[in-house]
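REQUEST
  id: r-88c1
  op: predict_structure
  target: Sec translocon accessory complex subunit YajC
  payload:
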Amino acid sequence: MFVTPAYAQAAGGGGADAFLLQLPFIIAIIAIFYFLLIRPQQKRMKEHRAKIEAVRRGDKIVTGGGILAKVTKVVDDGELEVELADGVRVRIVRSTVADVVSKGEPAEK
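RESPONSE
  id: r-88c1
  status: 200
  body:
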């Protein structure tokens, strides 16, 4: 009816062997997450960053707040001057641009 201490001690071994059997599955799960989630997200972020860096005068953009605007002037690397309506111009930070709706014609000098 009662388990002797000798039987109870023999049943607890094998902790390191179990970890070594689970290690390939853990590595496989990490690889799956990398190729299905992390890598595509990094690719989308890189494409978005390139699109935002290529914004020039005449492009129609959408800001992070959902405002549609037309770029009238690229002030410097971090700022844009956009026209919200006829005669209404605002300076915004380039990082707030969410999307480039349409590319405008190249600016004439």
